[in-house]
Amino acid sequence: xxxxxxxxxxxxxxxxxxxxxxxxxxxxxxxxxxxxxxxxxxxxxxxxxxxxxxxxxxxxxxxxxxxxxxxxxxxxxxxxxxxxxxxxxxxxxxxxxxxxxxxxxxxxxxxxxxxxxxxxxxxxxxxxxxxxxxxxxxxxxxxxxxxxxxxxxxxxxxxxxxxxxxxxxxxxxxxxxxx
Length: 179
What we know:
Blueprint: E1 5-10, H1 18-29, E2 33-38, H2 51-61, E3 66-70, H3 76-89, E4 95-98, H4 100-104, H5 106-109, E5 115-117, H6 122-134, E6 144-148, E7 151-154, E8 177-178
Parallel strand pairs: 1-2, 1-3, 2-8, 3-4
Antiparallel strand pairs: 5-6, 6-7
C-alpha cells in the first residue's frame, strides 16, 4: 500500500498560516493523511531554531510521502534551517519549499532546495503528491521549479483560481496539528 502521509511545516508567526491550512484541506479532501507542524517563534526574526526545536521534526516527518515547507521573506532563514536539518536526518523524503518567499524570490530559494513551488499551490501540490505517490516524473508540473543535474527547470505558473468557493474550508483539525 502506498504511503499517504504528508507533513506540512509552517514557519509563520502569529496569526497561523492560512495558506498551509488551505493546502492541507485540499490534500485531505483527496484522501491524504496530512499533519501540520507549526514551528512558531517570536517575531524577532534574528532568532532561529536550535537543535532541540528541530529534533522532533525527524519523528513527525518520518514515513511521509513528502514534506512541504512554507515561508515568508521574514521567515526564510528559518525555513532554510529546517530544510537543511531534514535533508541531513531523513534525506530520502522529498521536500517541496513554497509560500510567499519562494514565489517572489525563486532564484534564491532553489539554491536551498531542489523543489520549489511558486504561486498558488493548491493544484500543483495535488499533481506533485500524485506523481510522487505513483513514482512518476515531476519535471513538467506547472508552478514547480526543480534543480536537477546542475540545471534549473522553471515550469510556468498556472492561472490563478478564479472561484475561491471551489476550495475546501481551512484545516483547523487540531488532532493533526503540532506546535
